[in-house]
Design brief:
Layout: E1 2-3, E2 10-14, E3 20-24, E4 33-35, E5 42-44, H1 50-70, E6 75-76
Length: about 80
């Protein structure tokens, strides 16, 4: 059994206040916005540059998971 790349790849983003955050891509499924824990500013993940970067990471994770599945591995996602 292998852990899904969605639960291994991290999405990094910075707030205007200087705070930097990382979140596992799989934990951002269905989430459109994140709030900075330092200043509270809301970042819209559907806007650029976040949308494109997040989409590229998700596509890469899916490709890696598909390769593992093709080898016969079972892929597990964190709940």
């Amino acid at each position: 059994m292998a852990l899904s790349m969605f639960d291994q790849y991290k999405f990094k983003f910075s707030c205007d206040c200087g705070h930097q955050s990382e979140e596992l891509v799989g934990r951002l499924d269905g989430i459109d916005t994140v709030a900075c824990p330092k200043c509270g500013k809301i970042t819209d993940l559907r806007e650029e540059p976040h949308a494109t970067i997040l989409q590229e990471i998700r596509e890469l994770a899916a490709q890696h998971d598909n390769i593992s599945k093709a080898r016969g591995e079972t892929i597990e996602r964190l709940g």
